[in-house]
Amino acid sequence: SQTIHQWPATLVQPVGSPLSLECTVEGTSNPNLYWYRQAAGRGLQLLFYSVGIGQISSEVPQNLSASRPQDRQFILSSKKLLLSDSGFYLCAWHLGQGDGEQYFGPGTRLTVT
Amino acid sequence: DQQVKQNSPSLSVQEGRISILNCDYTNSMFDYFLWYKKYPAEGPTFLISISSIKDKNEDGRFTVFLNKSAKHLSLHIVPSQPGDSAVYFCAASWSGTYKYIFGTGTRLKVLA
Predict the structure, then answer these.
(1) Per residue in B77-91, is it b (16+ CB within 10 Å) or e — as a string?
(2) How far is CA A110 from the centre of its chain?
(3) Helix (H) or strand (E) run with residue A89 in it
(4) Rounded to an integer, what distance in angstroms lies between the CA atom of residue A6 and that of residue A25?
(5) How far is Cα B39 from Cα A100, in angstroms, rounded to an integer?
(6) Mean predicted lDDT score pLDDT of chain B
(7) Contacts of B53 (CB under 8 A, 6+ apart)
(8) pLDDT tens, position by position, B37-84
(9) Cβ of B44 under 8 Å from any chain A Cβ?
(10) DSSP states along B54-84
(11) Candidate from B43, B44, B96 with C-beta closest to A98
């Protein structure tokens, strides 16, 4: 069966510090991978998605970046965090295009102080 | 530009009664819709989906209705149970894309 891991579960970082969140998927090959952020009153905001190694599509211009160094690994990064980067970050995977459900990881609660 | 809207941020329902959660969308290209349930500090879990070729899909206590002319879908939960208390998100996608657009969520509270 497929599983998705995210770490860390919680993170408190000062403004201006770097960020690295990691997501890995087990039990499937060539998944589409996604990063979402849940902020108050904003629902689930799609940040990045990737349909293959090294392929990254950015949805929201901001100081975050994403990378996919391996088929089942997706990394969210920032060089300098802003207060507005606080939120609940979710990784998800999906197979196919245009239909089917996404499967979400447990999430990372990021607080920027 | 919110293409998927859930206009009710919260809803309270008595246990055993019907819960109706609503979702409106603006993009006519959307042809696949999903509902997710989310508990605090956890990732969303998939509940039910519907393709635009249907107007109803049922799975146990959960039924999703799609009204394409009104660009509206709804999730019915019958009977509602206290364990259904969570935030519910609707999402939409379309053929040829890898993207899913989510609404802002509705917090459902089922009162015992």
Answers:
(1) beebeeebbbbbbbb
(2) 12
(3) strand A87-94
(4) 9
(5) 21
(6) 95
(7) none
(8) 999 889 999 999 999 999 999 999 999 999 999 999 999 999 999 999
(9) yes
(10) -SEEEETTEEEEEETTTTEEEEEESS--GGG
(11) B96
